[in-house]
Amino acid sequence: MPIAPITGKLRKRFWLDLTTALGLGISGGFAFWYGVHLKHVQKQEELYLRLERARQQEQ
């Protein structure tokens, strides 16, 4: 009793995996950029601004 071949399953699964990976990757990138990176850059800029103001007051 032969088993019927499964056709088209890999192609459908590939597109699902690809779109899921891209969606999660882009979502993760945006979450990192706006949740972590920009806050870090803002703190860094505040530090440099504070140091510059302190340097100007010394002069």
Short description:
Keywords: Membrane, Mitochondrion, Mitochondrion inner membrane, Transmembrane, Transmembrane helix. This protein is mainly alpha-helical and 59 residues long.
Give the tags:
single chain; rod-shaped; 59 residues; mainly alpha
Q: Tally the beta strands.
A: 0
Mean pLDDT: 91
> Into which percent range does the helicity of residues fall?
over 70%
Radius of gyration over alpha carbons? Answer: 26 Å
Written account of the structure:
The chain is mostly helical and 59 residues long. It has one domain (8-59). The chain contains 1 helix and no strands. It has one helix spanning 9-58. The longest helix is centred in the middle third of the chain and has 50 residues, at 9-58. The chain starts with 8 loop residues before the first helix and ends with a helix. The mean pLDDT is 91. It comes from Grifola frondosa (Maitake).
